[in-house]
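User: My instructor asked us to take a sequence, write out its structure as tokens, and then describe one feature of it. I'm not sure where to start. Here is the sequence I was given:
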Amino acid sequence: MADKKKDNVKRPLIAWLSELRALRLFSTTDSPKFQEVISPGRLAVFDLSEIDNAKKKQLLVSYICRRLFKLRKKEKIPPFLLIVEEAHNFAPEKMDRRQALAKSPIIAIAREGRKFGACLCLISQRPVQLATTALAQCNTNIILRITNPFDIDHVGQSCEGIDKAMLDSITTLRVGEALVVGEAVGSPVFVKIRKRKSNFKSQGKELEAIAKNFEEGKAKQQQDVEAFL
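Assistant: Let's start with the prediction itself. The structure tokens for your sequence are:
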């Protein structure tokens, strides 16, 4: 009976460890070294766009959050602002705890980070899917155009000082226009962001170019087949 219980624990544990090993994430040292990357006036970007595995992304974001917060509490790195893009994927309101591995450290920074100089900025196009606990800890909200009624209702419940007229106005905002609410302003205010002065370089290609390359590739394959026959 005891051997059967051990076997019931051993098999899932081995499978879990094998899955973690297959992700090829672990090393004996940080890469990059956070104490070298995080410095005053410096921007560090962790680009996870080429990673398709959702669990791998969760593990990486979880580790980055935990590591940064730990180093900051020990005052080994300067105060920082951590910006999490697509935050609803990493701190979702409704998702199994085993899948949302980054949710706990993100909420920890949202709750406790201020007193240690660890600041957090959450960016999401679907606020209704973002953890209410994390959203409620945000001192300031910058709200751009939203049309989904569930998102609008969620924003209205989460942000103090927004009345129905302002919520209705959110649906009509244009590109570059936003509603700012919270400690950064005395009262809710609509703003218009100026055009960027820096050069913009898009990572992706235009849809027309992608479609054209695909068609040309298919045509070349057909020509190669015909030439071979």
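For the description part of your assignment, you could build on this observation: The chain has a mean pLDDT of 83. Try explaining in your own words what that tells you about the chain.
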